[in-house]
Amino acid sequence: MEGNSKARLLYILKLLMQYSDEEHPLTTADLISMLSDQYGIPTHRITLKTDIETLQDFGIDIVVISSSQNKYYIASRQFEIPELKLLIDAVESSKFITEKKSAALVSKLTSLASENQAKLLKRNLCLADRIKPSNEMIYYIVDAINEAINAGKKISFLYFEYNVKKEKRLKNNRKPYIVSPYALVWNGDFYYVVGYSEKHNSVGGFRVDRIYKAPTVLRDDAVPQPNDFNIADYTRSVFQMYGKEACTVTLRCDNSLMKYIIERFGEDVETTAYDMSSFRAIVDVELSPTFYSWIFTFEGKIQILKPEKARKEYCNMLQTTLDMERH
């Protein structure tokens, strides 16, 4: 092989990255044999020792175990095993990433570990069934949106929903939406593009996985963000339970629910003891189905104390549901 001396360093590094770790060091004989069998590169043990030192000088963290036959392994990598486990779990559990893309990303992540470590990663994967999207164009959709945001341009795209037969149906009479994108927002495992919609004459959000194909980045400059627009406030208003006109609500909560109150409203939420088994929480929310649905999930362990308007709206929503069930 021509240029063996130049290629040898790279192949040694590749072998160490792929096969070695603290529990599985490679001996001098291992490396010499692998170089010869896999790449047809003959190597002397003295040459190998010099190459290892060159890689160390370059900054590769190679540990040498001195013995009658030296052993070598990569001590530190770009990602540690606990970090890779976290990343793999995030990819596997994400509703935003399709099954096919999840498998591809997990494969790439496991390749960052040695082969033996990769086996450990695979054994630790949680393989419980998860609902995944079917839109394989998502990567390209996000890329086009980012391109438009960075360039300050409008985008054009078709948007769909599902009919009763679970068929995709294009909205807006099959006409494209023209949007000036301001930001991509991740909420509830879904991506949304937030921007000025010309159809609605207002700022709105569109779920990325419902965009039919990669948007077209137009030549037209995007409509500037309104002076009073704040993406953090918009996100809180639309995706959480806060609005521009917040309402102060007093809740009675079972003592077991403090962690959920903090998760939703933060550690600074105002709370006081109500009785021996419950506490009072004072929160600012938008009186909306989102807020009332959140309360309902706790099966009566959260009660609305005031204002009376909130109590009535919540009771009316429950009564409407009961009436529908009776029919």
Report on the architecture of this protein:
The protein is an alpha+beta fold and 327 residues long. The protein has 4 domains: 4-74, Winged helix-like DNA-binding domain superfamily/Winged helix DNA-binding domain (Arc Repressor Mutant, subunit A), CATH 1.10.10.10; 81-123; 142-228, SH3 type barrels (Roll); 240-326, 2-Layer Sandwich (Alpha-Beta Plaits). It is 41% helix and 24% strand. The protein is built from 11 helices and 14 strands. The strands form 4 sheets. Strands 9-8-7-4-10 form a 5-stranded antiparallel sheet. A hairpin with a 4-residue loop joins strand 8 (190-197) and strand 9. The termini are far apart.
Topology, element by element:
Layout (H helix, E strand, L loop, with lengths): L3 H16 L6 E2 H12 L5 H14 L3 E4 L5 E4 L6 H13 L5 H12 L4 H9 L14 H14 L1 E5 L2 E3 L5 E3 L6 E11 L2 E8 L4 E6 L8 E6 L9 H9 L7 E8 L3 H8 L4 E6 L2 E8 L3 H8 L5 E5 L1 H19 L1
Antiparallel strand pairs: 1-3, 2-3, 4-7, 4-10, 5-6, 7-8, 8-9, 11-13, 11-14, 12-13
Helix pairs in contact: 1-2, 1-3, 4-5
- Main sheet overview: 5 strands, antiparallel
Proper CATH architecture of the largest domain: Roll
Summed over residues and divided by their number, the pLDDT gives a mean of 87
How much of the sequence is in beta strands?
15-25%
Q: Which structural traits does this protein have?
A:
alpha+beta; Arc Repressor Mutant, subunit A; five-stranded antiparallel beta sheet; 24% strand; elongated
